[in-house]
Amino acid sequence: MTFFTKQTQTLDRHLTSSILVPSAALLSFGTISIILFIPLYDRIIVPVVCKISKTPSGITMLQRVGTGIAVSLLSMVVAALVEMKRLKTAREYGLVDQPDATIPMSLWWVVPQYVLIGIADVFTVVGLQEFFYDQMPDSMRSLGLALYLSILGIGAFVSSILISCIDKITSSNGETWFSNNLNRAHLDYFYWLLAGLTAFELMLFIYFSRGYVYKKKVNAL
Predict the structure, then answer these.
(1) Rounded to an integer, what distance in angstroms lies between the CA atom of residue 161 and that of residue 128?
(2) β-strand 11-12 against 103-106: which pairing, if any?
(3) How confident is the model at residue 50 (pLDDT cuts 50, 70, 90)?
(4) List of residues 6+ apart from 73 with CB closer than 8 A
(5) Per-residue b/e over 45-81, b at no fewer than 16 CB within 10 Å?
(6) What is the dihedral of CA 128, 141, 36, 203, to 10 degrees?
(7) pLDDT tops 50 at residue 10
(8) Burial of 12 (0-12, 13-18, 19+ CB in 10 A)
(9) pLDDT the model gives residue 126
(10) DSSP string covering the chain, please?
(11) How many CA atoms, within 13 angstroms, populate the side-chain half-sphere of residue 215?
(12) Residues 31, 111 contacting (CB under 8 angstroms)
């Protein structure tokens, strides 16, 4: 998300001649998409899917998580394509060596990737929370929620390590993917790498989740 913000900072962020949108303000699109998508999912998508799957929840908890991973993959593909467009525009207008120049592209180009990240959270994060709470033994539900939160923490560490390794490897060639001058950086390569890793993750998730047996509910008398 930090790179999304840096991307946005190079674009034309004027809504009108006098209103300039702060680049970090676009993070709100992720939150807005979550707020809008949850009732849409609950009131429209679930009832439709219920009629097809014949299950009360529409899709299982693990299917919900898997759907979120797929949407996350889509968000990385969109982000990579938008960054390729941004770099191409910078070259066309001779702005490659002007890191502080405004690229003649509207901020609306990056909104879809923020929205997709928000939708992915609705599926994945909420699905994981539900899964760890529902499938743990009753006496260990607090531990289940702790395990759910640990996933986010581990992800943050892995992200930092990945960025550090990529920066070290690519900077040895004199052209780091994360140059301070984004017009000479290659965030598009990084997004494509994340898309590939997410696709691999999705395949592993599908493989292992297919064998999971859900805990049976015992109705109280």
Answers:
(1) 24
(2) parallel
(3) confident
(4) 195, 198, 199, 202
(5) ebeebeeeeeeeebbbbbbbbbbbbbbbbbbbbbbbb
(6) 10
(7) yes
(8) middle
(9) 84
(10) -HHHHHHHHTEE-BSSSS-B--GGGGGHHHHHHHHHHHHHIIIIIHHHHHHHH--TTSS-HHHHHHHHHHHHHHHHHHHHHHHHHHHHHHHHTT-TT-TTSPEEEEGGGTHHHHHHHHHHHHHHHHHHHHHHHHHS-GGGHHHHHHHHHHHHHHHHHHHHHHHHHHHHHHHTTT--TT-SSTTTS-HHHHHHHHHHHHHHHHHHHHHHHTT--PPPP----
(11) 13
(12) no
Residues found in the chain: 221
32-9-19-27 Cα dihedral, nearest 10 degrees: 10
Q: Tell me, what amino acid is at 12?
A: D
How large a percentage of the chain has pLDDT more than 90?
56
Structure tokens belonging to residue 143: 């531990």
- Taking the C-alpha atoms of residue 67 and residue 191, their distance in angstroms, rounded to an integer, is 19
Overall pTM > 0.70: yes
